Amino acid sequence: MDYEQMLQRALAQVPQREGSGERFELPKAFLEKAGRRTILVNLDEICQALRREQDHFIKFLLKELATKGEATGGRLFVLGVFSSEQINRKIELYVKTYVICPECGRPDTKLLREEKVYFLKCEACGARHPVV
Ligand SMILES: [Zn+2]
User: Fold this and answer.
1) What CATH class is the domain 27-99?
2) How is residue 67 annotated by DSSP?
3) CA of 127 to the centre of ligand 1 (A)
4) Which of 40, 66, 127, 128 sits CB 3.0–4.6 Å from 76 for a disulfide?
5) pLDDT (tens digit per residue) in 25-79
6) E strands within the chain?
7) Secondary structure (3-state) at 57
């Protein structure tokens, strides 16, 4: 394999940037303010894009934001005032931890649970990693 091929291969393994169409697109939070609460209005879309269960994502998000919240009708009502930057950073962290394969950088993964341990199983390269 020559240098050019190696470079191509390395580039192919880098997760594609947002908007490139073909690969994974990081979902962005759409928020509404309601007094002392922040409403994540596109909870459904985010979880669909992440291909993860809402409960798992919600638990992570609320823990990260150190607050409480409740999901109703595809929206998440979060106690406290948060900016979309704050929430987007948590979505990104979630994706890095629970969606993107650490071996090949692809998002074609499944989150499996065995006993109390979660595993990230990659459908692209077959890697299996425990996640906390
Ligand atoms: Zn992989």
Assistant:
1) alpha beta
2) -
3) 5
4) 40
5) 899 999 999 999 999 999 999 999 999 999 999 999 999 999 999 999 999 999 9
6) 31-34, 37-40, 69-72, 75-79, 109-114, 117-122, 128-131
7) helix
What pTM does this model have?
0.80
Residue 15 has pLDDT above 50, yes or no: yes
Q: How far apart are CA 132 and CA 128, in angstroms?
A: 13
> How far, in Å, is the centroid of ligand 1 from the Cα of 99?
10
CA distances from 63 to 28, 72, 108 (A): 19, 18, 25
Q: How far is the CA of 128 from the centre of ligand 1 (A)?
A: 8
pLDDT in tens, 93-102: 999 999 999 9
Taking the centre of ligand 1 as the mean of its atom positions, its distance from the CA of residue 110, in whole angstroms, is 11
